[in-house]
């Protein structure tokens, strides 16, 4: 039977990356996506911006919306301090299955909790199920029409505190116009755009970093 792209991406990790070495996993995926098959990981160019924001925030609690194969999950978790935790949400079981194996290859199971299911259902359960008070950093990278409703849900569930950072991928391509309008015009956020390119291409894209002001 024909393999899927996530399966081929996982095989490229198992073939080319060193077990327990997260940066080699990131490198192997970027090489696979540049040389063999494009895939919707945040990628190496926007990934460097992601790295700098993660290092600056030094978060203890991170929420990622949209795991896919775990590329950005591993990239973020590899920069977290010892007792920090990253919760990542993925509602496609086939993608989740691959991501668990990529995360295991990187040796980051202890820092990452992959939760299978839709963000709209799981965000309201964060406090009771995972003992989360608030998130220091949220990486939004799931379907683009969910960025705004899930941001409002995070606010309503009291999961953001003064200084929480939202970092959103793809605000230009494919684009998240309603989200962008909200975080750029709401008095409750201070936003900044980081110009870049759609992963593995020359098409313009960028990340929007928004600080919740409480
Ligand atoms: C662009 S991919 C994530 C890429 C990943 N962040 C990276 O950079 O490696 C988007 C993922 O979000 C998942 N997704 C979309 N909407 C979702 C939702 N409401 N809840 C959970 N997962 C969702 C999709 O199944 C898909 O795997
Ligand atoms: O929506 C797409 C998309 C649309 C059409 C074909 C392939 C992907 C996409 C493209 C780049 C991204 O960084 C990304 O996060 C996504 N996504 O699905 O969430
Ligand atoms: Mg993206």
Question: What's this entry about, in short?
Answer:
With 214 residues, the chain is an alpha/beta fold. Helix content is 44%, strand content 23%. The chain has a seven-stranded mixed beta sheet, with helices on both faces.
Any overview of this molecule?
The protein contains ten helices and seven strands. Helix 2 packs across helix 5. The model has no long low-confidence stretch (mean pLDDT 98). Magnesium ion (MG) binds next to loops. The site of (3,4-dihydroxy-2-nitrophenyl)(phenyl)methanone has 7 residues, from loops.
Keywords:
alpha/beta; 10 helices; 23% strand; binds magnesium ion
Helical percent range? 40-55%
CA-atom Rg in angstroms: 16 Å
- Number of β-strand runs: 7
Q: What portion of residues belong to β-strands? A: 15-25%
Q: Sketch the major β-sheet.
A: 7 strands, mixed
Spatial strand sequence of the major β-sheet: 3-2-1-4-5-7-6
Series of secondary-structure elements, N-terminal to C-terminal: HHHEHEHEHHEHEHHEE
Let me know the average pLDDT: 98
Number of helices: 10
Secondary structure class reads alpha/beta
């Amino acid at each position: 039977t024909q393999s899927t792209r996530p399966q081929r991406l996982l095989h490229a990790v198992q073939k080319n990356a060193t077990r327990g070495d997260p940066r080699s996993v990131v490198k192997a995926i970027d090489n696979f996506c540049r040389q063999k098959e494009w895939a919707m990981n945040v990628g190496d160019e926007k990934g460097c911006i992601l790295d700098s924001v993660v290092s600056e925030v030094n978060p203890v609690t991170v929420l990622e919306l949209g795991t896919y194969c775990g590329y950005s999950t591993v990239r973020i978790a590899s920069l977290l301090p010892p007792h920090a935790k990253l919760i990542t949400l993925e509602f496609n079981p086939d993608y989740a299955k691959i991501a668990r194996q990529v995360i295991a290859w990187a040796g980051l199971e202890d820092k990452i909790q992959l939760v299978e299911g839709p963000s709209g259902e799981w965000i309201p359960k964060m406090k009771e199920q995972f003992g989360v008070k608030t998130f220091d950093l949220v990486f939004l990278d799931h379907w683009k029409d969910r960025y705004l409703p899930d941001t409002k849900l995070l606010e309503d569930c009291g999961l953001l505190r003064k200084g929480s950072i939202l970092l959103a991928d793809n605000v230009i391509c494919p684009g998240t116009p309603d989200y962008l309008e909200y975080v750029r015009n709401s008095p409750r956020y201070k936003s900044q755009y980081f110009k870049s390119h759609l992963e593995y291409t020359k098409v313009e894209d960028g990340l929007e970093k928004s600080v919740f002001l409480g």
